[in-house]
Automatic annotation (TrEMBL):
InterPro entries: RNA_MeTrfase_RsmD (IPR004398), SAM-dependent_MTases_sf (IPR029063)
Organism per entry: Kocuria aegyptia
Region: Disordered, residue numbers: 159-199
Species classification: Bacteria, Bacillati, Actinomycetota, Actinomycetes, Micrococcales
Basic and acidic residues compositional bias, start-end: 168-179
Origin superkingdom: Bacteria
Full protein name: 16S rRNA (Guanine(966)-N(2))-methyltransferase RsmD
Length: 199
């Protein structure tokens, strides 16, 4: 079982996804990540996208800490069910039923819809075995869909190379926590906007 660390639903226990080849974000990594995001003012009233959501723990943490809207995207049916259960638990704790939404499907298929977005914060915690090229392809549709000042966070194994950032995104910080590295990216203002990017 994982838990929400802080915020309106702090201490709340969440269901975990058993038997997957991924691992939940540890409380130490989660606490460091969200302390940083809060210091940057990234959470209050934010629109948040949680890709490769697993149990939805990162998105639910964002909701507890004041995000206005969170979307969890998860392709595995069992994990998507856990996301829905955890979203329901958070809704009851917050007294709202419209904060966390779950989309069952592949990340690429979800991002193929140009009507989705823009977002203030995107959290991407793909399975560690996901090939680097597939991760790069998953990140590419985010170009032009982060709001001004928005941040993309990618969680990867420390043994993995830095993600291949698509033109239009640039890494501005990284933080290593043992076997986990967090990569922080933002819109690259020196790159021209992609054709057809939303305003």
């Amino acid at each position: 079982m994982s838990r929400i660390i802080a915020g309106a639903a702090g201490g709340l226990r969440l269901q975990s996804v058993p038997g997957r080849d991924t691992r939940p974000t540890t409380d130490r990594v989660k606490e460091s990540l969200f302390a940083r995001l809060e210091a940057w003012g990234m959470l209050r009233d934010a629109r948040v996208l949680d890709l490769f959501a697993g149990s939805g723990a990162l998105g639910c943490e964002a909701a507890s800490r004041g995000a206005a809207a969170v979307t969890l995207v998860e392709r595995h049916a069992g994990a998507a069910r856990v996301c829905r259960a955890n979203a329901g638990t958070v809704h009851r704790a917050l007294g709202r039923d419209d904060v966390v939404q779950v989309r069952h499907g592949a990340v690429g298929a979800y991002l193929a819809d140009p009507a989705e977005g823009p977002w203030d914060l995107v959290l991407a915690d793909p399975p560690y075995p996901l090939p680097d090229a597939e991760l790069a392809a998953a990140l590419a549709p985010l170009v032009g869909r982060l709001r001004e000042g928005g941040v993309l966070v990618v969680e990867r194994s420390t043994r993995s190379p830095e993600p291949a950032w698509p033109d239009g995104l640039r890494r501005f910080e990284q933080k290593r926590h043992g076997e986990t590295t967090l990569w922080f990216a933002e819109t690259d203002v020196t790159s021209p906007p992609p054709t057809g990017a939303p305003d």
